[in-house]
Amino acid sequence: MKWWPFQKRAMKASDLPAGLFAPETAAGIAVTPSTALRSPTVLGCVRTLSEIVGSLPPHLYKRGAEGSRERDTGHEVAALLKAPNPWTSGTEFRTRLMVDALLHGQAFARVIRARGRPKELHRLDPSGVTVRLNDKSEPEYHVSQKAGAPIVLKWRDVLHLQTPGSAIDDPLKLIDLAREAISLDLVMQRYEGRAFSSGARPSGILTVPGKTPPERRKVIHAEWEAAHGDGAVGRTAILDDTMTWQAITRTMVENDFLQLRKHVAAEINRAFKIPEVLNGVTDRAVWRNVEELTTVFLEMTLTPWLDVWQAAYARCLLTPEEQGSHFIEFQVDALVRANLAARFNAYRQACGSSWMTPNEVRRLDNLPPHEGGDDLVLQAGQTPAAEAPPINPIEDDNDRKEN
């Protein structure tokens, strides 16, 4: 028999029963990061944001003269953005950390350094990390380990992501702030499941004489269920003279149940800033508004999160000197393909109308400058301003009379 010794380690929130410290809701359901994902709306919001952020590639750029920029693929940070460690791809890493940030309000990854340079990024369980401010108001990260006492990490050694607008030691937890709407969604989902498991709902009441013995009542109930329950719903019922049948009508609340579920789903989508069309609600979806809502989603919802990621990457991966010459930015071209034709048409008009040079247009898409691209493109019949002949002043009638 093999003996496994006990290991001494710090207790984490995940070691405690689910919902022990969760605030109570009016619906009577404890909303925690694990229970919240049982709501299809929450699951859709978390998957939409995390999978999109995970699919967008971040790149390291080097600043050049006159606002030019070009990708620095030879820098060690560029390789770290692509694969944070040998067993995790960049897509998997960003997706997992976004799930943590959405459910816990913050996400963490430890920076593993060699000779002072970042070499790997390792995800930390957010339930095992406590953020505290020291005497200098700098954050310190107390991390629980699988074995042994907690360790304390400095802020430059932790990739720290938070919900936009959070205080560094007091994150905004969307799950907690929207717990009432989430609990309602869970309650209605359970009610719907119980109702349909019982044949949707009782369609009526079968009344028997009051002096009927309990054994006889059980027999009547069994025979009725056998004749009209489950798949036999809708058959003709034959009653004794002593029995009566009373149909049950649906209440207004039951008739509006679907509308109530849609309302709760809209509340949850609003908390995560997800357009309903992007989370499976296509009742009023047409091609034009889906395209516009995708643009709104990119600008109003996704951009703040990408800014948080870019700042966190630069804070712990780039030295202060490198932050002056380099920056990290996500490539979002995959999300704007619907407007790609309109964007390229605007570039063509700007460049062809002689008010932007080709290199100025290329900088808008983080492309390196092209030789000879600093001159305006002139259309047929146009003359450069430096080579244009001088314009004679127009003489008025008084000048002509004096001459």
Q: Unreliable stretches, pLDDT < 50, 5 or more residues? A: 1-7
Sum up the overall morphology in one term. elongated
Largest sheet: 3 strands, antiparallel
**Mean of residue pLDDT?**
79
* Range of strand content: 5-15%
Q: What order do the strands of the largest sheet run in, or round the barrel if closed?
A: 2-1-11
Secondary-structure element pattern, one letter each: HHEEHHEEEEEEHHEHEHHHHEHHH
Q: Count the DSSP helices.
A: 14
**SSE class:** alpha+beta
Give the number of DSSP strands: 11
Our measurement of the CA-to-CA distance between the termini, rounded to an integer number of angstroms, reads: 123 Å
Structure description:
The chain is of the alpha+beta class. The chain is built from 14 helices and eleven strands. Mean pLDDT is 79; it is low at 1-7.
Helix and strand arrangement:
Blueprint: H1 33-36, H2 40-55, E1 58-63, E2 69-71, H3 76-82, H4 90-104, E3 106-114, E4 117-124, E5 129-133, E6 139-143, E7 151-154, E8 158-162, H5 174-177, H6 179-197, E9 204-207, H7 214-228, E10 244-247, H8 252-255, H9 257-272, H10 287-317, H11 320-325, E11 326-330, H12 340-352, H13 358-364, H14 397-402
Antiparallel strand pairs: 1-2, 1-11, 3-4, 3-8, 5-6, 6-7, 9-10
Helix pairs in contact: 2-4, 2-9, 6-9
